[in-house]
Amino acid sequence: MIPQFVLDALTYEQREHQWNQALVDGESGVFVAQSGGDVAGFACGCRNRDPDYETAYPGELQSIYLLERYQQKGLGRALFDAARTWLKAQGLVPFMLWVVTDNPACAFYERLGGTRIVTRPTDVRGANVIESGYAWR
Ligand SMILES: CC(C)(COP(=O)(O)OP(=O)(O)OC[C@H]1O[C@@H](n2cnc3c(N)ncnc32)[C@H](O)[C@@H]1OP(=O)(O)O)[C@@H](O)C(=O)NCCC(=O)NCCS
């Protein structure tokens, strides 16, 4: 869904810096799913970063990812619920998220009650992709 050159440009150091910032600035709700001793996945909620949508949807689910071997076991729903509870407690509802339109995760979001409110072309670090916005009230 994302061209390889975009993925190749990602670095561990940038991500580590980004997550350290998110964990200390107090502006994000970061949740980790654990299984045994492993980190199986994570979700992150925050204030909506898109000025075109922040008034109608003050919150955003910025990310939700599980390692493949932990998918389809209910952990995604648990992470989503934790992030949604955090967003609600911050007064950041309604909220929305962005997903590449071809991503099978769209069916997961629809299963969890999300409504597709918009589909638009966007630029992801130099790659043209089509993304969809899903919203929860
Ligand atoms: C999307 C993701 C977070 C979902 O988490 P998960 O743990 O696999 O999903 P769950 O097991 O909690 O599923 C919850 C419900 O959604 C359904 N569902 C999950 N993935 C689905 C899919 N791809 N297609 C259809 N339904 C799906 C489940 O069947 C389940 O339904 P049920 O309540 O009727 O049993 C996970 O698959 C993932 O990390 N994918 C790769 C990363 C990614 O694309 N993240 C989103 C970026 S925007």
Please tell me about this protein's structure.
Strands 1-2-3-4-6-5 form a six-stranded mixed sheet, covered by helices on one side. The protein has a single domain, classed as Gcn5-related N-acetyltransferase (GNAT) (Aminopeptidase, 3-Layer(aba) Sandwich), CATH 3.40.630. It has 137 residues and is α+β, with helices and mostly antiparallel strands. It is globular and about 40 Å long. The mean pLDDT is 97. The two termini are 28 Å apart. The structure holds coenzyme A (COA).
Features:
single chain; 137 residues; alpha+beta; Aminopeptidase; six-stranded mixed beta sheet; 30% helix; binds coenzyme A
Write down the overall mean pLDDT. Answer: 97
Shape: globular
CATH T-level topology: Aminopeptidase
Task: Please describe the biggest sheet, giving its number of strands, its sense, and whether it closes into a barrel.
Answer: 6 strands, mixed
Q: What is the spatial order of strands in the main beta sheet?
A: 1-2-3-4-6-5
CATH level-two architecture: 3-Layer(aba) Sandwich
Count of alpha and pi helical runs: 4
Q: Could you say which structural class the secondary elements and strand pairing correspond to?
A: alpha+beta
Kindly provide the name of the CATH class.
Answer: Alpha Beta
Helix-strand string: HHEEEHEHEE
Helical content band: 25-40%
How many beta-strand segments?
6
| Estimated radius of gyration | 15 Å
Q: Please identify which CATH superfamily we are dealing with.
A: Gcn5-related N-acetyltransferase (GNAT)
